[in-house]
Amino acid sequence: MKFDPVQPIPTRAKARGDGVRVSDFPIFESHLPWALPNLSPRAEGRSRLKYYSIAKVRREKRSCVHGYGSAHDSESDTSLVEVVAGYNTSLPCAIQSPLHDAPVLTLWYIGADDTPVYSYDQRSGVSGESWADPEVFEGRAHYLAHLNPPAMLIMRTTVSDAHVYRCRVDFHNSNSRVAWVRLRVIVPPSRVEIATHVSSVMPGQRDDVVCTAIGGDPPPSVVWMQNGKVVDPNSTVGERGTFNSLEVAATREDLNFPFTCKATNNDVTTPVFAIYYRNVTCGPTSVRIEASESPLVEGREAELTCTAVGSNPPAHITWYQQGKTIEDLINEYWCGLHCAITLVLKGNIRQQDHWNVYFYIPPSRVEIATHVSSVMPGQRDDVVCTAIGGDPAPSVVWMQNGKVVDPNSTVGERGTFNSLEVAATREDLNFPFTCKATNNDVTTPVFAIYYRNVTCGPTSVRIEASESPLVEGREAELTCTAVGSNPPAHITWYQQGKTIEDLFVNVTRQDNLTVSVLSLIPGRRHHGRQLLCRAENPSLPLATMEDMISLNVAYRPVARLEVGWPQRPDLMTEGSDLYLECIVDANPLPYKVNFFHNGKEMVHNETAGVEVRTAMTTYTVALQTVTRRNSGEYQCLASNVEGDSYSANLTINIKY
Residues near 161 by Cβ (< 8 Å), separated by ≥ 6? Predict the structure, then answer.
């Protein structure tokens, strides 16, 4: 198979697996990169890609093994790109063009494979044409020639995209050059699992619990945290996943500060985590007896209170009188880490004819009952918190962000209750309410948390494009993000005032965030059109927000050559003047426009009566005092970063 160096690569010849060899492409054997291994570009320092910040790029050393049955041990710099699965990334082709030369063809390979998986043609007449192996990238690969260095964009990366890629650039006159890029696709762990060996732990004991991260590639780090600090960073990769056995010795403080197991293998996605409440067995830290009065008075009722603090499980208290227990008069009561038992003495204390024991009984729990499923801003009395049990009747308070916001409780038939009187606001979505109930300062209050579901409209809406400018014929994504709405906002796309079908839209909703991704293949007809994204909460029609973007689509030129003078070019005779104008439709504007006469480029020469003007947006050529030699075919060629375009031939006949 042979290719004409000035023709685009045939579509079928590009398909993977059809036996195409590198030698089939328009280069010479002496241009092969391994003939000059020292030409590979030196690495730049560690950097982040300009447009896809989730992809990290760094350089590593590798031993290059090339195709054609030969292997060389020369050292070459390889860019390492890391990306989280599902995100976009760019693979840089870090090759610098030689002086006074320009690239004509860029090819991408997987490793040392002989068959390319992507090509970008920069030759005159076909500049900007690209091809990608549909079995490899499934339409997700695009070449960003305008970047420095140029890069291949891979959208929505998958695990199967992880390879060592080889970028080869062919030049007009110089030898080909090669750059290597390793793409590592990171798969975050899916969850963490906590497994305990024992139900309770003695002080000083270790290894009572193991936290295992399920999934993740590369293996994630699994750390134990307590009170906001890492206390055990030592994880191990096992058969089932990465695990960390808690090596921190158990102490009494663990009862107040639970442990958090976190696992992650990147700095993009949120770590997965689980909380472990360590059940440490502890004895009481203090025991104290207090009398209701001192001294006690004969014949007058008195109370003696014994308070034991710090025991887990709660301490058992026994009363003794003169060395003998009085447990028959006491009903046991378990009351948490802080236990207070009151002994009430009645009658003649000296004769001790009657003993009674009374308890301060804390509330057993609190129950939250809501009147409505969602609350409008400013609404009150949407929830009631009731303390069950407790003698004497406990106080029930509502707290938010560590402060008491409603202390007003009422004693009812079922228990003490507090109806939340605080007006609902958007901030309630970030700061839940806590209902606490207690009737003493010894035991821990019982509590429950209430997450107020406040209906709110969006606070911001923004449209972002996957690249700028968009490129004609290349798939692009426009993302509209609405923040702050509860429930998540409904997003509608409009183009020139008309709604866009949901067929081209992918929507995800989470918490108060809605992300709508519009997929389209832009054309020159889309350039300058306005796209509008409208986010609205159906419950709050007046809280609608919008964002608008004018599409900037880059496309290759379309050139048309016209006669500006004379008005009747078919009647031209020798000695008259000829004025030609090249009408160009292009974005961006062409960086050069050339005129040709019978295939030969026309050069500005006032002495010869040829004036070529290509300033600003006017592209003209003026011929003064024409002769029969000026007859023939005229063309103009317009070039921009997206490619080149010739006009149709314009035939001029000079009569003589």
Answer: 137, 154, 183, 185
**Would you call 11 helix, strand, or coil by DSSP?**
helix
DSSP secondary structure code for residue 429 in this structure: G
For residue 359, count other CB atoms closer than 10 A to its CB.
Answer: 15
- Name the stretches of the chain with pLDDT < 70: 1-76, 124-127, 327-360, 502-503, 615-616
List the beta bridge partners of residue 266.
none
Residue labelled with tokens 């832009």: 522
User: What does the pLDDT read at residue 444?
Assistant: 85
CA 73 to chain centre: 39
Distance (Å, whole) CA 188 – CA 218: 8
β-strand partners of 611: 622
Q: Is 500 exposed, middle or buried (0-12, 13-18, 19+ CB in 10 A)?
A: middle
Decide: 447 and 434 in contact? Cβ < 8 Å. yes
Instruction: Report the C-alpha gap between 447 and 407 in whole angstroms.
Output: 14
Q: What is the pLDDT of residue 360?
A: 65
Task: Say how far apart CA 558 and CA 580 lie, in whole Å.
Answer: 16
Asked if 479 contacts 532 with a C-beta cutoff of 8 angstroms, the reply is no
487-490-491 Cα angle (round to 5): 145
Residues 363, 415: contact at Cβ < 8 Å? yes
What pLDDT, on the 0 to 100 scale, is given for residue 124?
A: 62
Residues 320-343 have pLDDT tens digits of 777 777 754 443 444 444 444 545
CA dist., res. 119 & res. 479, Å (int): 28
Length reported for the chain: 656
Q: Which residues pair with 261 in a beta bridge?
A: 224, 274
How many CA atoms does the CB half-sphere of 611 hold within 13 Å?
Answer: 14
Provide the residue type at 359 as one letter: F
Res 44: pLDDT: 32
Listed residue (595, 288, 596) closest to 442, CA to CA: 288
Give the whole-angstrom CA distance, residue 470 versus residue 39: 34
Contacts of 235 by beta carbon, 8 Å cutoff, 6+ apart: 213, 220, 221, 222, 223, 242, 243, 244
- Write out the DSSP string of 248-274: SPP-GGGGTS-EEEEEES-SSSPPEEE
| Chain position carrying tokens 């639970």 | 258
**DSSP code of 481?**
E
CA distance 644 to 635: 13
Interstrand relation of 553-565 and 470-471 (parallel, antiparallel or unpaired):
parallel
